[in-house]
Amino acid sequence: MLRFCGVCVCLMGGVSWLLAAEPQQTVRQRVPHYQEHLDLSYYLDQQVQKQPIKTEADWKIRRNHILANMQTVMGEVPRPENPVPLEMKVLEETVVGTTKRLKISYHTDDLQQRVHAYLFIPHSASKQHPAPAVLCLHQTNSAIGKEEPAGIKGLPNLKYALELGERGYVTLAPDYPSFGEYPYDFKTHPEYRSGTMKAIYDNMRSIDLLQSLDYVNGDKIGCVGHSLGGHNTMFTAAFDPRIKALVSSCGFTRVHKYYGGKLKGWTSDRYMPLINSEYQNNPDLVPFDFTEIVASFAPRAFLACSPISDSNFEVSGVKDVLQIARPVYELAGKADNLQAVYPEAGHDFPPATRETAYQFFDQHLKK
To answer: How many CA atoms, within 13 angstroms, populate the side-chain half-sphere of residue 175?
Structure first.
């Protein structure tokens, strides 16, 4: 048995909770409710009784419940039998250092709408020598969106799509819905309960696109993001196991430590409005926490980059999350896959921290 913070910890295994298009109150009643998001040592059985997690099969049961509770807030993950064709178009082509930068567009869920993105292709990538790929998600920057990770505009510390491309990765930097060149009215799309889920599905389709490229190794996919991109990376990875390694810079803290539990910043149409309308902006009522989200990645590789002076995502809450999730990684036999760095910085992704992140990808995607 594993122990942490005075409780036994274990892992889980195989109940699927089907969330149909039904009233929100009904969905909440069907999903097991966990009052303790800091205790990952048990799962709730069909009689809603606590059962200790002793095996990975046990953990999978709790993990399924975590994903189900996330979907009560975010909405269901779309799983269409026949996804909309991507129909990628190349709009521009530019040589940048050791890479070719393509500006592209593609469909995700609507033939009348295209996502715009920058695609970096290192000169070394080919059909004979496919490269690993990294999906690069931008921060909250409405005007430029994808141009910041592409190194075209914005902060030089956030040009990770360009830098990873120069390091030998195929990288894709798309716009988040309503940012950059992606006009989107969330109120006219009731099929998505949240902007967060719309972004998750777009990201999943972006991974479809990467895997469709013959110069990409489709089994070696990573994801990285800063701030909005940091938690967008995490939310996507929770639902998409094709992401084998992920890095979140300034992307999360415990819900109760986000601005002292003031959750208004999570509640716009772009993110999760039900946190306001259904959960009264009360961290005690939100049915998931980042402790559970990080544990859901196990055994996949996760690096948290959390500056000690980040004013958005309080660093002690990050350390809480890593401590509570670690026994899940230990149960999976992959404790070293859960890593964190705490640079002396504010809400930023400094050069030395980015280098640590890039080496992390090298370790998990290039070997």
So the answer is: 24
Residue linked to tokens 């006009």: 183
Give the max Cα distance, the chain: 60
325/296 Cα distance (integer angstroms): 9
Whole-structure pTM value = 0.92
* Token pair belonging to 154: 């914005």
Find residue 172's DSSP bridge partners: 119, 135
DSSP collapsed to 3 states, the chain: CEEECCEEECEECCCCCCCCCCCHHHHHHHCCCCCCCCCCCEEECCCCCEEECCEHHHHHHHHHHHHHHHHHHHCCCCCCCCCCCCCCEEEEEEEECCEEEEEEEECCCCCCCCEEEEEEEECCCCCCCCEEEEEEECCCCCCCHHHCCCCCCCCHHHCHHHHHHHCCCEEEEECCCCCCCCCCCHHHCCCCCCHHHHHHHHHHHHHHHHHHCCCEEEEEEEEEEECHHHHHHHHHHHHCCCEEEEEEECCCCCHHHHHHHCCHHHCCCCCCCHHHHCCCCCCCCCCCCHHHHHHHCCCCEEEEECCCCCCCCCHHHHHHHHHHHHHHHHHCCCHHHEEEECCCCCCCCCHHHHHHHHHHHHHHHHC
| Mean pLDDT by groups of 10 residues along the chain of 367 residues | 33 32 50 93 95 97 97 96 97 97 98 97 97 98 96 98 98 98 94 97 98 98 98 98 98 96 95 96 96 98 98 96 98 98 98 98 95
- Among the listed residues 84, 134, 143, the one whose alpha carbon sits nearest the alpha carbon of residue 357: 134
